[in-house]
């Protein structure tokens, strides 16, 4: 009997958006208006690519970025929750599906010694170039009209479950923990025995409640949280601790 925990990263594991947190490295902690206004909906990864070029052009190096990123605060109760999951890995497989990038997530989790809690991290691949600039790429290509161009979280989840089945692993329940609009697509893929945990007051919770008002609610159960302590209480009931 195993449970799959699927976490978003920004505004879920950490209490901020890691991509906007990096702006603290920019001159005067802000981006020029032209760059800020260059974002087009659904094309966030390309926009962040331009942000990283701007930081590189202004002499921001890897070690400064790393120092800045590892000061990002975790969401209330999250460190305790992740330590609890780490102690109970015989019950839980745990993955991250995020629109952040591999470098940021790796830095943040390793600095807090939480990286071993997660079996896999699915996010946009990033690396430093030979000239010391951070570069980021789209995670994959997909045909989902609802999701940003670089990442459909439903596709990631479906493919992960398919690979696990090939290995003989199936899950009693999937628990999906997130906050954003791009978490709705995978939540709508969940079945009635699964549970979606949207963060209180954020876009995912609002979108799920709009669906319910329109009489086409999601199939899974929904449990809203504001502190990760509430998530931990639910998981303790699951494993009857």
Automatic annotation (TrEMBL):
Gene3D superfamilies in the cross-refs: HAD superfamily/HAD-like
Keyword Hydrolase appears in the UniProt entry: yes
Source taxon at top rank: Eukaryota
Keywords: Hydrolase, Magnesium, Metal-binding
Annotated positions binding Mg(2+): 8, 10, 179
An example Gene Ontology molecular-function term: phosphatase activity
Active site positions, chain numbering: 8 (nucleophile), 10 (proton donor)
Record bears the keyword Lyase: no
Xref: InterPro entries: HAD-like_sf (IPR036412), HAD_hydro_PyrdxlP_Pase-like (IPR006384), HAD_sf (IPR023214), Pase_PHOSPHO-typ (IPR016965)
Residues the record lists as binding substrate: 19, 99
Family named by the database record: Belongs to the HAD-like hydrolase superfamily. PHOSPHO family.
PANTHER family the UniProt entry points to: PHOSPHATASE, ORPHAN 1, 2, PYRIDOXAL PHOSPHATE PHOSPHATASE PHOSPHO2
Record protein name field: PHOP2 phosphatase
